[in-house]
Amino acid sequence: MHPARPVPHKAMKILLPDKCRRDAGPGPVTVEALLSELGFDPIEVIVSRNGMLVTEDAVVGNDDEIRIIRIAHGG
Amino acid sequence: MVHTAGHGITPRCDTCGEPAVYRERTTGRHFCKNHFIADVEGRVLETIRSRNLIAPGDHVAVALSGGKDSTALLVILSKVLPGVGPVRLTAITIDEGIAGYREDTVRSADTLVARYALPHLTVSFPDLFGGTLDAFLAGREPEACSVCGILRRKALNVAAERAGATKLATGHNLDDEAQSVFMNVLRGDLPRLVRDSGSDSQGRFIPRIKPLMFVSEKEIAVYLMLHGMWADLPECPYAVHALRGEVRRMLATLESRHPGTMLNLMKSKAKIEAQCGGLLEDEAVHRCRECGDPCSGEICQLCTLKKTLR
After folding, report:
1. N or C, which end of chain A is more exposed by having fewer CB within 10 Å?
2. Which positions in chain A touch B221 (Cβ < 8 Å)?
3. Inter-chain contact B71–A53, Cβ cutoff 8 Å?
4. Contact B273, B199 (CB under 8 A)
5. What is the ipTM metric for this complex?
6. Does the residue A4 lie in any domain?
7. Chain B residues with CB-CB distance to A52 below 8 A
8. Which CATH number characterizes residue A30's domain?
């Protein structure tokens, strides 16, 4: 009988406002901390996880797909 | 309240326990989609009622650029105005002639008014002033916002008059208003600082109203996203030249570190307005010697500006 192998954590996939994609560590991490790490002010962006809007204190990680949308000024 | 799913933790709505889509930073309160939408619309209705911005029988011209703020304004007014009484809406769009920017938002405005089956009136700078904003600003880009502001104000008044409107609603939000308070302090412009934020026509033109003045820019973005109406539109290319841009960045940082900063600026303004607003409203109203529009001097800002336009 083989010992159970730990399931490796997957990186989060981040879609940035300029449409570039990048991977981030597996987390878990709060949205606010992730934004800070990426250099975004939470006032100026909104964030979705797997297509659903999430709050800054939501915790994301593993293979979540995170989209960061910059709020255009004016209009 | 939180909910865990795999690695993720989703905070829950403080009212109903559904997944939260928005967290109000000052109070820490969480809102689900339905309670967030109800909160925003309720706040706009409260602003309209408490400031008597719109009355039954009014015909409201909604300044619709097609950008996020004016789109949200039109959507929210369409939903909340039945609670005020019989009110007509007409969308008015100003095409300043800003290449690579205004085309997209005008298309977005056209789509929106078709969806809501509203009357729509468009006025362009070339029609009114004989040229595009791009042409007027060649070589004087740093003045973009003040030049555009004067021309746009006139264009909005003309469009609202042509529509036969009794009120002119603009999509200025909490961030815009807080920035204006701060900018007026920086400029030492006390008369403008104490001017009523909700309606700044001073009885000279069709009254201008700002029903979104207590809704933040981020709340507007979330509101549109939840309605599937978010469009990734470009920003005005001239915005980089404005003092407002610097003030916006500064206030965003302060709001992020000290939630409630923008609302506190509005409260400060309201207190100053209550204390000394009446003392400064005796400025005599003249008629412009050249065009006859109401103004504070002998010649209005528009006629003064027109002399410098190429």
Report:
1. N
2. 46, 69, 71
3. no
4. no
5. 0.87
6. no
7. 19, 21
8. 3.10.20.30
Q: How far apart are CA B221 and CA A14, in angstroms?
A: 20
Task: Say yes or no for a CB contact (<8 Å) between B30 and A55.
Answer: yes
CB contact under 8 A, A73 and B235: yes
pLDDT at residue number B240: 74
- The verdict on residue A57 lying in a domain is yes
Q: Where are the alpha helices (DSSP H) in chain B?
A: 33-50, 68-80, 102-116, 125-129, 133-137, 144-163, 174-187, 190-194, 217-226, 243-257, 261-276, 301-306
Contact yes or no for A69 and B225 at CB 8 A = yes
Number of domains chain A is built from: 1
Which residues are bridge partners to B90 per DSSP?
A: B61
Q: Please check whether residue A3 lies inside any domain of the structure.
A: no
- What range does the domain containing A53 cover? 12-70
Per-residue pLDDT of chain B (310 residues; tens, 9 = 90+): 444 444 568 899 999 999 999 999 999 999 999 999 999 999 999 999 999 999 999 999 999 999 999 999 999 999 999 988 899 999 999 999 998 888 888 899 999 999 999 999 999 999 999 999 999 998 888 888 889 999 999 999 999 999 999 999 999 999 999 999 999 888 888 877 777 555 555 556 899 999 999 999 999 999 999 999 988 877 788 877 677 888 888 999 999 999 999 999 999 988 888 887 666 655 667 888 988 888 878 898 899 999 888 7
Chain A neighbors of B112, CB-CB under 8 A:
none
What's the gap in Å between the CA of A3 and the closest CA on chain B? 23
The pTM assigned to this predicted structure is: 0.90
Among candidate residues B47, B46, B43, the one with its CA nearest the CA of residue B210: B47
Tens of pLDDT, residues B278-306: 666 556 678 889 888 888 788 988 999 99
Chain B residues within an 8 Å CB radius of A64: 7-8
Q: Taking each helix axis from N to C terminus, what angle separates B174-187 and B261-276, rounded to the nearest 10 degrees?
A: 60
Who among A43, A60, A69 is closest to B8 (CB)?
A60
